[in-house]
Amino acid sequence: MSDVQAAPGVDKNDVDKLDADKAPVGKNPVGKKPAGKKPGEARHESIYRAVSDAIIEQRLKPGARLREDALAEVFGISRTGIRKILQRLALEQLVTLTPRRGASVTRPTADEAKDVFDARQLVECGLMPDVARRMTSKEAAALRDMARQEREALRSGERSTAIKLSADFHIQLARLSGNATLAAFVEQLCSRSSLIMAVYGHRGHLGCESHDHDNLIGFLEQGDAERAEAFMGRHLKAIEASLSIVEKDDSTPDLHQIFGA
Q1: pLDDT at 143 over 90
Q2: Which fold has domain 110-242?
Q3: How many CB atoms lie within 10 A of CB 184?
Q4: Are 95 and 89 contacting, i.e. CB atoms less than 8 angstroms apart?
Q5: Per CATH, which fold does 13-105 belong to?
Q6: How many of the other CB atoms lie within 10 Å of CB of 254?
Q7: What angle do CA 258, 30, 152 make, to 5 degrees?
Q8: In CATH terms, are 13-105 and 110-242 the same topology?
């Protein structure tokens, strides 16, 4: 696939399509400054979110190459800035950095998906007794609100938002255990499983019942650690079982079309 000279990373056959089908770049559009950040930091943060959203929403497919020069042109920042953003995405395992080849969207394999969900089973189920012992009514109410937002996003067809909210729910549960080290590990696992679910899950649902999170909160609020642990195990297994993993070839994405630049 050849590149046009004026726009590195853009397929020549797609030049006439650059203004068509411009997709949004996420909750924090490029150029809009998140509160409390300096202009340069805000710009990098909005670009990071734009690329992260594009990966989760599958506008950037697994295996797609992410050329620094093309991204720098699309977003109007230096290659050094783009490199820092790609390194951050690599730490979250949404992007893979390969010597001499550069960056590409991480492509989870069947084995990796199994490893991630096995790890979540071990860690998250094991944290349920601590969460059940420590949870307050205020924390339970906050979790129910998160579960409600997730259901609303799914009903509205905002699947990528629902996936993120689901991950946030599990991360917050882990934090309530009081074990900061394991909570940080759960956050990494949820980042990886969000990509797995976005790529290999079904568009209409997240692989579990819409009321699962509410049921889990109920067990935890009652202090029933045993039932909460068993329910978490079934919940994670249902999500894993819903995945349909089909591996595809690498591709070169049209960055201008994806990011509306």
Answers
A1: yes
A2: Four Helix Bundle (Hemerythrin (Met), subunit A) (1.20.120)
A3: 13
A4: yes
A5: Arc Repressor Mutant, subunit A (1.10.10)
A6: 21
A7: 75
A8: no
